[in-house]
Amino acid sequence: MTKKVAIIASNGGVFDAYKVFNIATAAAATDMEVAIFFTFEGLNLIHKEANKQLPMPEGKEHFAEGFAKANVPAIPELVAMAQEMGVRFIGCQMTIDVMGLEKEAFVEGIDIGGAVTFLEYAKDADITLSF
C-alpha cells in the first residue's frame, strides 16, 4: 500500500520553501503520495510572483551564494518539479479569500480547499509535517 505524506506549509520564507519542497519531492521520488496544504504566508511558495523572491532570514544572506554554488534549483523550479512528480497542492480557501487573491495568482494545477479538504486527505496519512 502506498504511504501518504501530508504537509502543512504556513511560512513563506526561502528556507521554509526548501524544507517543504525537498521533503515533498523526496517522498514523491520514493513512490509516496504527497499533498501540501498552503496557508497564510505559505501561500507565497506557490504564488507566481512571490515565489521568485521569497525572503531570506536576516543575517543569512550568504546562503543565496551557497545555493547558487551548489546548483540548488530555484523555488519556481522546485514547484514545477514537485508538480511533475504528482505532488498535490491545496491552497487554503479561507486565506485566499482573506487576502483578496484569485486562483490565477498561483501556479497552474492547484486545488483550492479548506481545512476539511486537507483533513480528508491527512486523516490516514502515514507522515504529517508542518513548516
Strand arrangement in the largest pleated sheet:
4-3-2-1-5
Number of helices: 5
The radius of gyration is 14 Å
Spans of at least 5 consecutive residues whose pLDDT stays below 50 are none
State the end-to-end CA separation: 26 Å
Net shape? globular
Query: Please, what is the average pLDDT?
Result: 96
CATH class: Alpha Beta
The amount of beta strand, in percent, is 15-25%
Helix content: 25-40%
CATH topology annotation: Hypothetical Protein Ychn, Chain: A
Indicate the structural class: alpha/beta
Give me the strand/helix succession. Answer: EHEHHEHEHE
Q: CATH superfamily, called what? A: DsrEFH-like
Using the 3D structure, state the CATH architecture. 3-Layer(aba) Sandwich
Give the number of domains. Answer: 1
Total strands: the figure is 5
Sheet with most strands: 5 strands, parallel
Please explain how this structure is put together.
By secondary structure, the protein is an alpha/beta fold. It has one domain (4-130): Hypothetical Protein Ychn, Chain: A. Helix content is 37%, strand content 18%. It is built from five helices and five strands; from the N terminus they run E-H-E-H-H-E-H-E-H-E. It has helices spanning 14-29, 62-69, 75-84, 93-98, 115-122, and strands spanning 4-9, 33-38, 88-92, 111-113, 127-130. The protein has a five-stranded parallel beta sheet, sandwiched between helices. Strand 3, helix 4 (93-98) and strand 4 form a beta-alpha-beta unit. It is globular. The two termini are 26 Å apart.
